[in-house]
Specification:
The protein has 233 residues and is α/β, with parallel strands linked by helices. The chain has a single domain (5-230), classed as Aldolase class I (TIM Barrel), CATH 3.20.20. It has helices at 14-21, 35-51, 66-78, 92-100, 123-128, 135-148, 158-167, 195-200, 210-213, 218-230; strands at residues 5-8, 30-33, 56-62, 83-87, 111-115, 153-155, 173-176, 205-208. Strands 1-2-3-4-5-6-7-8 form an eight-stranded parallel β-barrel, surrounded by six helices. Helix 1 (14-21) crosses helix 2 and helix 6 (135-148) packs across helix 7 (158-167). The N and C termini lie close together (10 Å). The structure holds cytidine-5'-monophosphate.
Length: 233
């Protein structure tokens, strides 16, 4: 089983996250720890989740001077995480430094993923921060920068997946949030796609939060997401 589903552990306490994980099989999914949970419960929680055999995507989106990011990435890798990310807009030296800091981990190193343009940013928002291009062009530019710096892939929205898959090599990983089944509420996600469609568009890993974390039976919801992915893999 290829474990394409990454469940977003968007909880505000470690206790809640662990209680949720008690009900899940690490052979059927991976999990994402983001800024909320990490700020609440920190590295000890990450270690605990890793010790329960879950592959952890540490979604802290590092963005700082190259030396600081390289050191943070190395310390994160020490926690035993499977994947972590940095902002591609931090520039090539920062991205290369992050990649180099993982060399000592050899084959055991975590995957290093770039964040391109946050999907919450519109064309107008980009203009306001001095980036007067359309968001798609900027996404593509940053994805190529990430690839050139040796990163393993990028996070991209469902709307961007097809375009990036066509432009980038097969081995370059695309991680996609905003995934919903037809019966799921979209919540604050503006553009959503189904799990099968996202995989067909070329995504490798799907980040799913509320449709699983808030389900009456998270395990049953996960089984459904996995079946949808398997039907097109
Ligand atoms: O609950 P839901 O499935 O919408 O959760 C999606 C997860 O993916 C959340 O952790 C969210 O922060 C993350 N994410 C996103 N859109 C992005 C980047 C990350 O929804 N562009």
């Amino acid at each position: 089983m290829s474990k394409n589903i990454i469940i977003a552990l968007d909880f505000d306490s470690g206790d809640q996250a662990l209680k949720f994980l008690d009900r899940l099989d690490p052979n059927l999914c991976r999990v994402k720890v983001g800024k909320e949970l990490f700020t609440a419960s920190g590295p000890q929680l990450v270690k605990e989740i890793v010790s329960r055999n879950f592959d952890v995507f540490l979604d802290l989106k590092f963005h700082d001077i190259p030396n600081t990011v390289a050191r943070a990435v190395s310390v994160a890798a020490d926690l035993g995480v499977w994947m972590l990310n940095v902002h591609a807009s931090g520039g090539k030296a920062m991205l290369e430094g992050a990649r180099e800091s993982l060399e000592p981990f050899g084959e055991q190193r975590p995957l290093l993923i770039g964040v391109t343009v946050l999907t919450s940013l519109s064309k107008e928002d980009l203009e306001q921060i001095g980036v007067p291009t359309n968001p798609e062009e900027q996404v593509s530019k940053l994805a190529f920068l990430a690839r050139d710096a040796g990163l393993d892939g990028v996070v991209c929205s469902a709307a961007e997946t097809r375009l990036l898959r066509a432009q980038l090599p097969d081995g370059f990983i695309l991680v996609t949030p905003g995934i919903r089944r037809p019966e799921d509420a979209s919540g604050d996600q503006k553009r959503v796609v189904g799990p099968a469609e996202a995989i067909q568009n070329g995504s490798n890993y799907l980040v799913v939060g509320r449709p699983i974390t808030r389900a009456d039976s998270p395990n049953a919801a996960l089984v459904e997401f996995n079946s949808a992915v398997a039907s097109v893999s």
